[in-house]
Design brief:
Blueprint (H helix, E strand, L loop, with lengths): L19 H16 L2 H17 L3 H17 L3 H17 L5 H13 L3 H13 L32 H30 L3 H15 L5 H17 L3 H18 L5 H14 L3 H17 L3 H6 L1 H10 L3 H20 L13 H11 L1
Length: 358
């Protein structure tokens, strides 16, 4: 998962006058990125970047460059992402702000490309960086409607904003340090260094205990799943991927939910729970339908159907038939050609025809 660099700022960074145009562009980019609309996100982040260039603001230039890199990584344009990360580091250095998040993203790219030694070096550089936090921001990280069982900020005595600001800064630092441990745990799990992975994961959990962040909770679930995968414990891994999807939703990071659910489906399939695997694959298809990606949604139906037929799950077949019918209607409304029908002996086709006749 990728987290945007817009949340925490360096304690050494002085308060700046907010540029309304830049803030508007960046906010639109964040919203589109969270929704998974990467084309819109890139367009808005470019506008924010160009505005930052026009007013020669190094911090905002570096932040926008980092956000563009995050988008490029999601599109598997890794070389372009690395180039923007170089630019982000130069600008953040000029602003005397932390470049730690850029090194963490660089590490994730290296890990995706199986460059594990380089990834470890990048995590080390992130660990040596100052946490990207601002003790003076005064932003409350947990509100009265926070999904955490007991809001960390609400436990603070009401003795003024300075205490809250200090606590917020401490939480930001703990969040960042936890991310370092999670990066190390993820790398260790990737290379089957189970004890090392579990040690860093335990450290991350301890730090996360006092940080009310659904995004961090999602990261914890993802790394826990990877450790279970490395140990061949597929059912436990699937459970954690399920929880990752839940926390991503609570964090408003909808973009990554189908990825987590696909991984959950694959893990459930390995655990010989085809019924649960089919359910998660159906949810993935429905997510893409909801985002207007009708053909992409359709592409998940054959695998979901195969899983449903394997476990003889009638409810899953009915739900898939409902989705298939909705896709056909949506394509017809757009004047798009109809997609290939499932095989004639498919129960999905039978159910779809029954729905149509009713």
């Amino acid at each position: 998962m990728l987290s945007l660099a817009s949340g925490c700022r360096s304690a050494s960074t002085p308060q700046r006058k907010v540029d309304t145009s830049l803030t508007r562009f960046a906010s639109s980019g964040h919203e589109a990125f969270a929704e998974g609309d990467l084309d819109v996100a890139i367009a808005q982040y470019r506008k924010a970047l160009h505005r930052a260039w026009s007013i020669d603001d190094p911090y905002e230039s570096g932040t926008s460059a980092y956000n563009l890199a995050a988008c490029m990584t999601s599109l598997s344009k890794n070389q372009e992402a690395r180039d923007w990360l170089v630019d982000a580091r130069v600008e953040l250095c000029r602003a005397k702000s932390s470049a730690g998040n850029t090194w963490l993203l660089e590490a994730k790219i290296a890990q995706q490309e199986c460059r594990f030694e380089e990834a470890k070096t990048f995590v080390d550089r992130a660990a040596c960086s100052q946490p990207p936090c601002d003790a003076g921001s005064g932003d409350c990280l947990c509100g009265p409607k926070d999904p955490c069982k007991e809001s960390c900020v609400m436990r603070i005595p009401c003795v003024g904003s300075r205490v809250k600001q200090k606590k917020a800064a401490e939480q930001c630092e703990d969040d960042y340090t936890a991310q370092i441990h999670l990066a190390r745990a993820r790398l260790a799990a990737e290379t089957y260094e189970i004890e090392c992975a579990e040690m860093h994961f335990a450290c991350a959990c301890e730090l996360a205990a006092d940080v009310c962040s659904e995004s961090l909770q999602a990261e914890l679930q993802n790394v826990a799943a990877m450790i279970h995968l490395a140990k061949g414990e597929y059912l436990q891994a699937a459970w954690h991927f399920d929880n990752e999807a839940k926390h991503l939703r609570l964090a408003g990071n909808y973009r990554e939910i189908p990825v987590a659910l696909e991984l959950a489906s694959a893990a459930y399939e390995q655990a010989e729970r085809a019924d649960l695997a089919a359910s998660r694959m159906c949810r993935v298809a429905r997510i893409w339908f909801g985002r207007g990606e009708f053909k992409k949604s359709w592409s998940y139906l054959p695998q979901a159907l195969c899983l449903a037929e394997h476990c003889r799950c009638q409810s899953a077949k009915i739900r898939l038939a409902l989705l298939a019918k909705e896709i056909e209607l949506a394509l017809a409304d757009q004047g798009e050609p109809m997609l290939p029908k499932p095989p004639k002996d498919s129960l999905l086709l039978d159910n779809s025809e029954n729905l149509e006749s009713s």
